[in-house]
Amino acid sequence: AQSVAQPEDQVNVAEGNPLTVKCTYSVSGNPYLFWYVQYPNRGLQFLLKYITGDNLVKGSYGFEAEFNKSQTSFHLKKPSALVSDSALYFCAVRDPNDYKLSFGAGTTVTVRA
Amino acid sequence: SAVISQKPSRDICQRGTSLTIQCQVDSQVTMMFWYRQQPGQSLTLIATANQGSEATYESGFVIDKFPISRPNLTFSTLTVSNMSPEDSSIYLCSALGTSGRGYNEQFFGPGTRLTVL
């Protein structure tokens, strides 16, 4: 069975500071990993994904994530956070042989001006 | 990319009634899914909506409670039957489509916020 853990319910940072949202996963075989963002009263928006290749993945809105196989992690990062980055972030994993996504519990990011 | 719309966007319903949520995708997609997001929680897959056949339900979800239709490659409905307050959630439709980057991505609708009194 596949699963994802987001150990932090909330992350608070000041605008302009680096932002990191943590994610660890458990899956048999090579994982497909995803980050989504959910703004209030809106659906999920895709940020980035790792399938294979370079461990550092760049995505939308200046976000990037690093796949670390030895630590089974896929942390989301942004070098300089904006107030508009305040939202709910979900990490998700998918078995390559299936299309079903398993989501983490979500991390609420608050960026203060 | 696939753009997904859902109707209604929100509703308040009485216990014991049923609500049907519609999901429309702006392009033909191979796979469509329905998720539930309970208050303060993550997303849980309810079922995969199969075109022309019965939906495939995840553990803990049954057809009698959540009947699903998918008459074609762009449209699906989810019915929440005999509702109770525990069914108060956001219900999200999702579709597997091709992104502008040329690979499959799972796109999500804006969700339907259901409150059961």
Structural account:
The complex is a heterodimer of chains A (113) and B (117). Chain A is mainly beta. Chain A is 0% helix and 52% strand. Chain A is globular, with a radius of gyration of 13 Å. By secondary structure, chain B is mostly beta strands. Helix content of chain B is 0%, strand content 53%. Chain B is built from no helices and eleven strands. In chain B, the strands form two sheets. In chain B, strands 2, 4, 5, 6, 9, 10 and 11 form a seven-stranded mixed sheet that branches. Chain B has a four-stranded antiparallel sheet with strand order 1-3-8-7, with no helix packed on it. The mean pLDDT of chain B is 91. The interface between A and B is medium-sized, with 19 and 22 residues.
Percentage beta strand of chain A: over 45%
Q: Please give the largest β-sheet of chain A.
A: 6 strands, mixed
Enumerate how many helices of chain A there are, as a single number.
Answer: 0
Q: Which percent bin holds the helix content of chain A? A: under 10%
The residue fraction in helices of chain B comes out at under 10%
What is the mean predicted local confidence, pLDDT of chain B?
91
Whole-Å distance between the termini of chain B?
37 Å
Q: Note the quaternary state here.
A: heterodimer
The beta-strand count of chain B equals 11
With helices defined by DSSP (H or I, 4 residues minimum), what is the helix count of chain B?
0
Order of secondary-structure elements of chain A: EEEEEEEEEEEE
Please trace the helix and strand order of chain B, writing H or E for each element.
Answer: EEEEEEEEEEE
Rounded radius of gyration of chain B (Å) = 14 Å
Question: How many E-type strands of chain A?
Answer: 12
How many strands, which pairing sense, and closed or not: the largest β-sheet of chain B? 7 strands, mixed
Overall geometric form of chain A: globular
Shape assignment of chain B: globular
User: Given the helix and strand composition of chain A, which structural class is it?
Assistant: mainly beta
| Backbone structural class of chain B | mainly beta
